[in-house]
Specification:
- The protein has helices spanning 10-23, 44-66, 78-92, 94-99, 106-124, 132-141, 150-165, 168-190, 199-221, 227-247, 249-254, 260-263, 268-285, 295-312, 319-323.
- Helix 3 runs antiparallel to helix 5 (106-124) and helix 8 runs antiparallel to helix 9.
- It has one domain (5-323): Farnesyl Diphosphate Synthase.
- It is mainly α.
């Protein structure tokens, strides 16, 4: 009989995560670094016009496909945190999906983002952690959720909508990806060791949380993407998760969530190398033409650059801080 994840200690969870990563051929570290990003940019005026148009499209997407379905949860506090991710998902993915032979599907995207938001709330918001058992039973043992509850009913409806819109093989692979994220979330919540986690372990957890979220969502709408393309998106998602953890550092500490950012800080220079390297690798592997202006890349890089410069750089404002921070890049 397979042991329940909720009954495992941290070491057992770590072994289980390693086993699933190996099965799905996903890395436990970021394998690329760089000094700059290489692609041709649009001029600023054109970019601002496109950004305004896409922001409007994202707002319409949210109102039509998300807001109307929330019911009694419309005023839940966690929505303030998660709403920007609906926007980013809708603004940033269509071009890349098209490049990979897929197409952005509003219905699938909305169902996926809704389910992801509710699941994340059960991990990140203490008052919703009572739902973790139901999610664990569903994700790891395929036990249907039977509890009559608005929160869980909305999750079930979203997951059922995904299943009805994709083929069986794609859904089964998707479920394996979600197991990886679930294990990494539990590792963040239940780390009980007296010793701080190693940087490599924290990075592996960060990759599994952030990398899966982006990659699994894209996989649903472009199931023909290769394993190398999935890996490239997975690594980039992990780097973005580090930046998100920086933004949420205080809140995560209050909720007892351990992240790479609040346990062993990555230096500013190393963060830039990880970010540059993962973007360049994604451009190469996902066949993005670096000589043609790319709106998604422009918007994406503009947003991340602001986070790096305004949120991250101030944490390393003296040379002494830089020197006392571990500087070796994550390369193989």
């Amino acid at each position: 009989m397979v042991k329940n994840l909720l009954e495992m200690n941290f070491s057992e969870l770590n072994d289980t995560l390693d086993s699933l990563l190996k099965k799905m051929e996903l890395p436990g570290s970021v394998t690329y670094s760089g000094a700059s990003i290489h692609y041709k940019k649009y001029n600023k005026i054109r970019l601002l016009i496109v950004a305004a148009y896409r922001l409007l499209a994202a707002e319409l997407f949210y109102r039509k496909h998300i807001q109307k379905k929330l019911g009694g949860l419309r005023k839940a506090r966690f929505l303030k945190t998660f709403k920007p991710y609906f926007y980013i998902f809708r603004i940033g993915l269509p071009d890349l999906l098209q490049n990979l032979g897929g197409k952005f599907d509003d219905k699938i995207a909305a169902s996926y983002m809704m389910a992801a938001m509710l699941y994340d709330a059960s991990c990140d918001v203490p008052q919703y952690r009572t739902y973790l058992k139901e999610f664990n039973d569903l994700i790891m043992f395929d036990r249907p959720i039977v509890k009559d509850d608005e929160f869980l009913t909305l999750f079930k409806t979203s997951l059922n909508a995904i299943q009805s819109d994709i083929d069986k093989e794609t859904f089964e692979t998707f479920k394996d990806y979600i197991k990886i994220e679930h294990i990494s979330q539990l590792m963040s919540l239940y780390q009980a060791s007296d010793k701080p986690l190693t940087k490599d372990t924290l990075l592996k957890i960060t990759l599994a949380k952030g990398g899966i979220t982006i990659m699994a969502g894209m996989y649903l709408m472009a199931p023909t993407i290769t394993k190398e393309e999935r890996k490239a998106i997975y690594e980039l998602g992990g780097v973005l998760q580090i930046l998100e953890d920086i933004h949420d550092m205080s809140e995560d500490l209050e909720n007892g969530i351990q992240t790479l950012s609040n346990q062993q800080m990555v230096s500013y220079d190393e963060m830039r190398r990880l970010y540059f390297g993962s973007v360049n690798n994604m451009i190469s592997v996902c066949r993005v033409n670096p000589t043609c202006p790319n709106t998604t890349l422009d918007l994406f890089c503009w947003l991340v650059d602001k986070v790096l410069e305004e949120k991250y750089a101030p944490l390393f404002h003296t040379e002494q801080q830089r020197k006392t921070t571990y500087e070796k890049p994550f390369t193989t």
